[in-house]
Write a structure and sequence with these properties.
Largest sheet: 6 strands, mixed
Structural class: alpha+beta
Distance between the termini: 47 Å
Number of strands: 10
Number of helices: 10
Shape: globular
Strand order of the largest sheet: 6-8-5-9-7-10
Radius of gyration: 19 Å
Order of helices and strands: EHHEHEEEHHHEHEHHEHEE
Length: 298
């Protein structure tokens, strides 16, 4: 892959991930068209938080016996995810290993390589008290919390065709593919300085945002400051899940947190909205007298 000569000090950024137990639902519901986008999203969103533009992606598809139709549906989803991220799908591996996987099941993994100018790497080091936290809406649970989701549905005894308050079926809501934030965020970065970003994956808001915060700071999230998708309301009610656990396991409707200076907040919101994102002002950065950086919801 030829690196553009437009970069003066190019730094490569890489990320690798899978889809997790969401695949169990893909098998159960026979929905294989969107998990490829999930696969791409988990990696390209991860490297985006350092300001990196995705260059290319490779995937690994492993099964006991190759079902060509299923594999084609999965890879089509991977290709669509790459299109959304603006990167090339330049290769991959399809491994057929009899006896390794139950009939009808497979595993997915992939990795993305991106690039960022050294002087423009986003590392959170300039974040300070008073900065504003913006939240970009998620499309649903994305690819995290699915062990709990499956358990809640099992215990509830409700069918996957159950209608939620927004009119979606439970199956449609949980299988909605991961939103890919690459193009809109990179576009917004052309006009506003982003100090830090956190991709809200496993660990939710509470565990992902502190990763980008410097010592002596905390992120204070204002509960109810964004519209939470109906699927999370259903899961919390049916599973009798406490608020803290919801924030620790799920993204709760926020797929990416973006931290900017207070004076840039309005401009950043407008830029991200213009690029196609639903944006909420969800919190602020405050001083933390002692201890490691953390995130709290009030």
């Amino acid at each position: 892959f030829e690196i553009s000569k437009d970069y003066k000090e190019p730094v490569l950024v890489t990320g690798t991930d899978g889809v997790g137990t969401k695949l169990k639902l893909a098998f159960l519901l026979n929905r294989h068209d969107t998990v490829g986008q999930d696969l791409v999203g988990m990696s390209v969103n991860d490297i985006l938080v350092q300001g990196a533009k995705s260059l290319f992606f490779l995937d690994y598809f492993a099964c006991g016996h190759l079902d060509v139709d299923v594999a084609e549906r999965v890879v089509k989803g991977v290709a669509h995810g790459c299109e959304l991220a603006g990167c090339a799908l330049i290769g991959g591996e399809t491994a057929e290993m009899p006896g390794m996987y139950p009939a009808g099941e497979y595993d997915l993994a992939g990795f993305a390589v991106g690039i960022v100018e050294k002087s423009q790497i986003i590392d959170g080091s300039h974040i300070k008290p008073g900065d504003v936290v913006l939240g970009l809406a998620s499309s649903g649970p994305h690819s995290n919390g699915f062990s709990l989701i499956r358990k809640v549905v099992e215990v509830s005894g409700k069918p996957w065709t159950t209608k939620l308050s927004d009119g979606k079926t439970l199956a449609d809501a949980v299988m909605e593919p991961t939103r890919i934030y690459v193009k809109p965020v990179l576009e917004a970065m052309k006009s506003v300085t982003i100090k830090g970003m956190a991709h809200i994956t496993g660990g939710g808001l509470l565990e992902n945002i502190p990763r980008v915060l410097p010592e002596g700071t905390q992120c204070v999230i204002k509960a109810g400051s964004w519209k939470r998708p109906a699927v999370f309301d259903w899961l919390q009610e049916e599973g009798h899940i406490e608020d803290h656990e919801m924030y620790r396991v799920f993204n709760n409707g926020i797929g990416m947190a973006v931290i900017v200076a207070a004076e840039d907040a309005e401009k950043a919101q407008k830029a991200l909205k213009a690029a196609g994102e639903t944006v909420y002002r969800i919190g602020v950065i405050e001083a933390l007298p002692a201890g490691e950086a953390l995130c709290v919801v009030r």
